[in-house]
Design goal:
Mean pLDDT: 84
Pfam families: DUF2141
Radius of gyration: 15 Å
Organism: Sphingomonas insulae
Keywords: Signal
Shape: globular
Structural class: mainly beta
Oligomer: single chain
Helix content: under 10%
Signal peptide: 1-18
Protein name: DUF2141 domain-containing protein
Length: 158
């Protein structure tokens, strides 16, 4: 099941497609500004992927995302998600892979951010400046690489 959770009125009334077209989920033909997020390096082809769009003022604060797209991994190690953007501007993307789809953060789950900042056990949350990307009118693309825990380090799947 694909869920589109967008808090702003303009996009909240848009219909959600019953099935994704190809591998892209999250936008409709009526979405005027969009960010295509190419998520690479999923550890497992199971579970769910969540992509959240933030502006600087609400970056990584609970419930302060501007858009949230959830999609199943559906047997893929790479997922493409389309995120509706309210207007051109500077945004940050946070991605979470809930590998067992239990809705909780487990040691096997992964995370990623736009611009692929380096993460560590001591620094799991980058600053907005480290992930900020310009999003123009129409369609913008960004690739992110998933990070997972490897003992006492965090990084892409080996």
């Amino acid at each position: 099941m694909i869920r589109l959770l967008v808090p702003f009125a303009m996009l909240a009334s848009m219909p959600v497609p019953a099935a994704a077209q190809g591998t892209t989920t999250g936008c409709t033909a009526a979405t005027p500004h969009r960010l295509i997020v190419d998520i690479r390096g999923l550890r497992a082809s199971t579970g769910d992927v969540r992509v959240q769009l933030y502006d600087e003022g609400g970056f990584l604060e609970k419930g302060r995302w501007l858009a949230r797209i959830e999609a199943p991994a559906s047997g893929r190690r790479a997922v493409e998600v389309c995120v509706p953007v309210p207007r051109p501007g500077t945004y940050g993307i946070a991605v979470r892979h809930d590998a067992n789809a239990n809705g909780k953060s487990d040691s096997g789950d992964g995370g990623a951010f736009s611009r692929d900042p380096r993460l560590s056990i001591l620094r799991l949350k980058p600053s907005f400046t480290q992930v900020a990307i310009p999003v123009g009118a129409g369609t913008t693309r960004v690739a992110v690489t998933m990070n997972y825990r490897h003992g006492f380090s965090i990084g892409p799947e080996r």
